[in-house]
Amino acid sequence: MLHNPARLRFSRADPTMRVLALLLIVLILASLASALYYLVKDKGKSDRTVKMLTVRIALSFILFALLMLGHYLGLIPENGLR
Q1: 1 in a structural domain
Q2: Residue 31 structural domain
Q3: Contact at 8 Å (CB) between 12 and 77?
Q4: What is the 3-class SS of the chain, one letter each residue?
Q5: Cα separation of 6 and 58, whole Å?
Q6: What is the mean pLDDT of each run of 10 residues along the chain (82 residues)?
Q7: Transmembrane residues, as ranges (predicted)?
Q8: What pLDDT score was predicted for residue 77?
């Protein structure tokens, strides 16, 4: 089995990756909360809810790509973020 040399350098999760992942999760939840707020406040007469949900989708995609890249580069070990 071939090993990626970048994976062999790290034995634990990189703290930077952990902080970035948690920051993105907080931003995703904030976007979801603001979408709910705009949904209740505007009562469907504005497109702010759709915009905030679009931001949430974009942040979720960025988080997924970041996690995949971190795993590929060995910044996240195979047993997870411990």
Answers
A1: no
A2: 26-77
A3: yes
A4: CCCCHHHHCCCCCCHHHHHHHHHHHHHHHHHHHHHHHHHHHHCCCCCHHHHHHHHHHHHHHHHHHHHHHHHHHCCCCCCCCC
A5: 28
A6: 51 75 96 93 87 96 94 77 54
A7: 20-40, 52-73
A8: 76
- Residue 20 falls within a domain, yes or no? no
* Under 8 Å between Cβ of 35 and 49: yes
Q: What is the pLDDT of residue 16?
A: 83
Domain count within the chain:
1
In a domain, 9, yes or no: no
Give yes or no for a contact between 35 and 56, defined as CB atoms under 8 angstroms apart: yes
Give a yes or no: residue 5 inside a domain: no
